[in-house]
Write a structure and sequence with these properties.
single chain; eight-stranded mixed β-sheet
Length: 421
């Protein structure tokens, strides 16, 4: 019988082993963020379309080409969120979170949706971990954000020599006004070679020219004017203090003056986490005008987002084991009806004591049960039959080194034997 349908292009089925990897990365991210004082927030999977038009920007590829937008039954335009920052900013304003103690530190794990050309590491449905700070307008805030990400990478055992932290400053709105003029003058000399979209960008937002994915336009990027040459003294000072903060924490970084990021709300600090091969797995920066742009009070803000699937793919490249916390502690095999009821009860008791324990619920032979225990990777096994029930003890086998020990058939004694040293 043929399958009725397949998963939509650009999406993934996350199978059990994949979910273990995702959970490991998510837990490491949330645990690391908690050490820095971040609290988790969750926002809806869809928002009013206007939120992204006003925050991400009408001139970006995300808004122009990549958003999943639809009308609801009352004709209201809604969009599956393509990124996490704007929804969090909206939630901060709407729920009055700025009345809390500042700085306000929030983090999230969420699914996002963009209609992009699927390729390695890029999907139309993907998950992000993000961290956002509101109410802090200092270079050390931005440096601390990168330190958080760097600590997470270390917790995940990412090889230091296989990725770079690249930083830049795109200045304040006044700096960018002069920089836009320089970009227009430069790109106008190559107008005939630019793609159709860049013909519009050159007038509406010339910095988007540097972010164009077209190979024809990318050929002019290396010789284009550099934003650092147009930043004012205040922005240069901010950037210098930001780098000094990273130096103080021994966080390695490289200045890349070509980074502009793909969203319109960034100001001053921008940064990306770049592997030596493969897709950029995250980035962020400062966006002091975002909350005011969305109707809130003028509030400094900064943050970053990481693609969880990209991080997992990066870790897999180097054989890093992100599978953790899902290995069965014990499989209890049963021989006979009385033993089956006993194993059913003892396994339930072990689970209440936080142990990952299994028993037969299929009706297999003991030999088949032991094959199953081996297949699921149980650390220990125990075979219980009538003799074991009568004696009140059984042989506990270490499935890794094959050592055996006799153990009393009660939860306390079993746990004492299977606890990791």
């Amino acid at each position: 019988m043929a399958i009725i349908t397949t998963r939509p292009r650009g999406t993934l089925d996350k199978l059990p082993d994949d979910c273990v990897k995702c959970r490991a990365v998510e837990n490491a991210a949330l645990d690391t963020a908690a050490k820095y004082g971040y609290r988790e927030i969750r926002t809806p999977v869809f928002e009013h379309t206007e939120l992204f038009k006003r925050s991400v920007g009408n001139t970006t590829d995300i808004v122009q080409k990549e958003m999943y937008t639809f009308d609801d039954k009352k004709g209201r335009s809604l969009t599956l969120k393509p990124e996490g920052t704007a929804p969090v900013a909206r939630a901060v304003i709407e729920n009055g979170l700025l009345n809390d103690a500042l700085p306000l530190k929030l983090c999230y794990v969420t699914n996002c949706y963009r209609y992009e050309a699927p390729q390695s590491g890029r999907y139309r449905e993907f998950s992000q971990f993000g961290a956002e700070v509101y109410g802090a307008d200092t270079p050390l805030c931005d440096a601390e954000l990168i330190a958080l990400a760097y600590d997470l990478f270390n917790a995940l055992k990412m090889p230091d020599d296989c990725y770079k932290i690249e930083v830049n400053s795109i200045g304040c709105p006044d700096c960018r006004h002069h920089y836009h003029d320089a970009l227009r003058e430069y790109y106008s000399r190559h107008l005939d070679a630019l793609c159709h979209d860049c013909h519009e960008r050159i007038e509406r937002n010339p910095m988007r020219l540097l972010d164009c994915k077209s190979p024809e336009c990318g050929a002019f990027k290396e010789s284009a004017p550099v934003i650092l040459d147009y930043n004012c003294d205040a922005c240069n000072s901010f950037f210098a203090q930001f780098k000094a903060g990273l130096d103080a924490l021994n966080v390695p970084y490289t200045v890349n003056p070509r980074i502009v990021r793909g969203l319109d709300y960034y100001t001053n600090t921008v940064f990306e986490f770049v592997p030596k091969s493969g897709a950029v797995f995250g980035g962020g920066g400062r966006y002091n005008g975002l909350l005011e742009q969305l109707g809130g009070a003028k509030t400094p803000a900064s943050g970053f987002a990481l693609g969880i699937e990209r991080i997992i793919s990066f870790l897999d490249t180097f054989g890093n084991n992100t599978k953790c916390g899902n290995t069965p502690d014990l499989y209890v095999a049963a021989l006979g009806e009385s033993a089956a009821l006993f194993t059913f009860r003892i396994v339930h008791e072990l689970r209440k004591r936080e142990k990952n324990a299994h028993c037969d619920i299929v009706g297999r032979s003991v030999k088949a049960q032991m094959r199953y225990a081996d297949k699921i990777g149980a650390r220990y096994s125990l075979v219980v039959g009538d003799n074991e029930l009568q004696n009140g003890s059984a042989v506990l086998k270490n499935m890794i080194n094959k050592d055996s020990v006799e153990v009393a058939l009660n939860a306390d004694d079993i746990i004492a034997q299977i606890e990791p040293v």
